[in-house]
Amino acid sequence: MQRVCFTLQVKPGRLDEYRLRHREVWPDMLDALRRTGWTNYSLFLRSDGLLIGYLETPDFEAARAGMDLEPVNARWQSQMRDFFIDPGARDPDKQMLSIEEVFHLD
Hints:
Blueprint: E1 2-9, H1 15-23, H2 27-35, E2 39-45, E3 50-57, H3 60-68, H4 71-80, H5 92-95, E4 97-99
Antiparallel strand pairs: 1-3, 1-4, 2-3
């Protein structure tokens, strides 16, 4: 199982609304994530907007590619785009900066 950690940067003025949106993630989006291999998926948000994501999957690139084929993902990403700081105006799932794992206690 591949463990993946990534970061994004939420705009400071959008933190409360970002939290609210993630209390109400669409059921079809949750189903798509599960179907494409996103397991043990968590998001952590710091008060300055630093977002840290963690998930486990057999193959992260395959999981991302699978989500690219899900129509619900395109709708979700377009609604979430304005929550993030990104000069390239990319969808959030294209902004993820992976962090190298250097230690794991199992």
